Automatic annotation (TrEMBL), chain A:
Transmembrane segments: none annotated. It comes from the Bacteria. Residues 7-242 form the ABC transporter domain. This is ABC transporter ATP-binding protein. One of its GO terms (molecular function) is ATP binding. The keyword ATP-binding applies. CDD domains: ABC_NikE_OppD_transporters (cd03257). SUPFAM superfamilies: P-loop containing nucleoside triphosphate hydrolases. Belongs to the ABC transporter superfamily. GO terms for biological process: transmembrane transport. Keywords: ATP-binding, Nucleotide-binding, Transport.
UniProtKB/TrEMBL annotation, chain B:
SUPFAM superfamilies: P-loop containing nucleoside triphosphate hydrolases. Its main location: membrane. This is ABC transporter ATP-binding protein. It is a peripheral membrane protein. One of its GO terms (molecular function) is ATP hydrolysis activity. The lineage of its organism: Bacteria, Pseudomonadati, Pseudomonadota, Alphaproteobacteria, Hyphomicrobiales. Gene3D superfamilies: P-loop containing nucleotide triphosphate hydrolases. The keyword Transmembrane does not apply. Residues 9-255 form the ABC transporter domain. One of its GO terms (cellular component) is plasma membrane. It is found in: Cell inner membrane. Keywords: ATP-binding, Cell membrane, Membrane, Nucleotide-binding, Transport. Belongs to the ABC transporter superfamily. It comes from the Bacteria.
From TrEMBL, chain C:
Coiled coil: none annotated. Belongs to the binding-protein-dependent transport system permease family. It is a multi-pass membrane protein. One of its GO terms (cellular component) is plasma membrane. Residues 96-285 form the ABC transmembrane type-1 domain. GO terms for biological process: peptide transport; protein transport; transmembrane transport. InterPro entries: BP-dependent_transpt_permease, MetI-like, MetI-like_sf, OppC_N. This is ABC transporter permease. It comes from Devosia sediminis. Keywords: Cell membrane, Membrane, Peptide transport, Protein transport, Transmembrane, Transmembrane helix, Transport.
Amino acid sequence: MTAAVSIRDLDIELGFGASRRLILDGVALDVPQGACFGLVGESGSGKSTVLRCIALLLRGWSGDIDINGRPVRDIPRAEYCRQVQMVFQDPYGSLHPRQSVATALFEPLRTHKLDRHQERAEAALADVGLPGDFLYRYPHELSGGQRQRVAIARALILDPSILLLDEPTSALDVSVQAEVLNLLSDLRTKRGLTYLLVSHDLAVIDHLCDQFAVMQHGRLLEVLPREAIANLQVTNDYSRSLIQASLDYDRAI
Amino acid sequence: MDDTVLLDIRNLSVAYRGEDGMVPAVRNVSFTLGRERLGIVGESGSGKSTIGRALLRLLPTAQITADRIQFGQHDLTRASERQMLDIRGRHMSMILQDPKFSLNPVRPVGDQVAEAFRIHHRCTRSEAKAKALKMLKAVRINDPERVYGLYPHEVSGGMGQRIMIAMMLIAGPEVIIADEPTSALDVTIRLDVLKLLDDLVTSRGSGLIMISHDLNLVRNFCDRVLIMYAGRIVEMLDARNMGAAQHPYTRGLMAAQPRIGGNRQPLAVLKRDPAWLEEKAP
Amino acid sequence: MTVSSNALPAAKASLRRTFRDEAGRMLRRLLSNPATAFGLCVIVILVLAAIFAPLLMTHNPLAQNLSNILKAPSAENWFGTDELGRDVYSRLIAGTRITLTIIGLVSIIVAPIGLVIGTTAGYFGGWYDTAMMRITDIFLSFPGLILSLAFVAALGPNLNNAIIAIALTSWPPIARLARAETLILRSADYISAAHLLGASPLRILVKSIVPMCLPSVLIRVTLSMATVILTAAGLGFLGLGAQPPTPEWGAMIATGRNYMLESWWLVTFPGAAILLVSLSFNLVGDGLRDVLDPKNR
């Protein structure tokens, strides 16, 4: 079976002049179809940059990114949008402040010339556990958790198979995080989605993912199975210290 | 731990002016602080940060009322702005979440630490510098001489937060309010910073108010914990007895937290009961 | 699902209602500031005066009466008469139409040009941005009045050319502003999301970026109206704007200047009108900034 996302030798440099720096250095990973794959690392390790490269929000990278076996740069734009979508960290920044939920959800349907806008939008809201009359609300009338649900509904409205999740719950309260994590896990089972999840919280990774990769300074150190967190079965020193720190923090400090 | 009461608060309420009338942020909160570590936990909007700011009177637009805010010999309900200037930093100080925003970007960090001392103590520049270097060493910065001359953008997040701690502790305050002191830091340095803060506070016999959204953190770093919901204290517990929490809100918060090595069952979802808004604090 | 679709019309109606409430709230906040309220009043009076000019005028603003020249304000001629015996009050009222024409045309030309150049430069970046911003810099490096003078001198002195000249000199600050806003917006997650959902750059610009730039552009245009009025009056004063006998305020001051010492009313009334209107636009611009600019909240 071809991998949903396959990355080889991904490099990217960002910045101008003297401050130009190699942000990603030879990143390679494979996300199997229907899996939930985690990316962990400290801030500045380049984990979000990997997502932005896959999402083509950053252009200047070199290497290969294949989506379902096809090089991402060969996939027509419209088709790409219907395969890969993304959910962002900040629920306050990911919805346009002057657009109602309806506008946010109808917009992609219009660009992709799909029919039955109202029906599809209501169905998308129902999928994320929001009533249909939320269509006529503005972002400032929603709580953080509701916004994140709308952002997930928007990402799912084109029925993609791969979802890139960039710290989807780290800006939320614990109780709201639990709701969103449950929702994400339900949606994956129901729709057979593939997740690539970036998080700094190993407890979240452990809760959702089957496999995860540890990143540091733009390099991917190793790919580990989920069990490696609880059992601390790691070879790399840095991964060990990262997991140890999370374990210490999570259990009685 | 002795029974000295550093801070005694009765019926503290804080309200903001909203579009239509006053909107309460904190409602009738009472607690005392001794030479101990007190955690205040709650979700966003619960009013936990507002308490810390109200104590230092850092809320220019809010309406603060209280029957009593006794801080040592000062009655903070009646203190003038001039007295507050003396209290802030010298007797009570605050560590904020992100050092990026609380350090002045155009001055070397060492100068800022030294200045924090000079504001409250008569001394020469060189004495203040010596004191600042000593303080930087106390927050376990290995080469204080070099760090002294760095600018805030040249230091990492963890280092920045140590510098903030140095700056806030240098004048020797009796009460330290830490508002989410480690939320902006990576997990690998969080523990170091927390331990450092803990050591300094305990060795100096100060009182610490640790404001956080993280139950796990306060449970392990504090002696007592207040749990806030919608501007009220719903439960007050010894940190050791967190497992025995009675209030459904506290229990819900604990259950909602994913744990490493958990069973991956759907997480317990907190069901909010409107009655929590009105019930009396214990 | 049926329950929620029944609730939809009601929800839609409430959406419209919140919209109206929002507008009402905005207006109330505008009026709660006395300075802004004053400015708004003056502008409303200006517009009303222009609409009802024929009714308000006591004399034909162009009719000369050589037996009644340079008369001081009186019951017959409220603001006196000029050197050709024309009624200053009627000319002032007639001048409101010219002032409003200038303001209206300039803002209709300037706002779209500034928005298009600024947002595209900010969004696409690269060599296009560099080229556009250098052109903007060239325009910005000349004082507005001097540049307008040069344009009018080249195009020939009349009111329409003056309007074109003023428009040509007032778009650069707006383009700059729109570009700065776009640079910030470009990296917002909701723009990334729109991009990922397949929206074309043009669609992103029109649907997502321009609506976010509009408030600050509106503030900027209102504030620059004060300068536009002054520049127009300046051009009129120098004989390069509206030509006699058109009752343009700047031109009125220019001719009145010759008789200023003995007939103070010839310069005082048009001068006061210019001052009042440009001040009012400034005040309204400031008030709009308080209401619209999210940074001030």
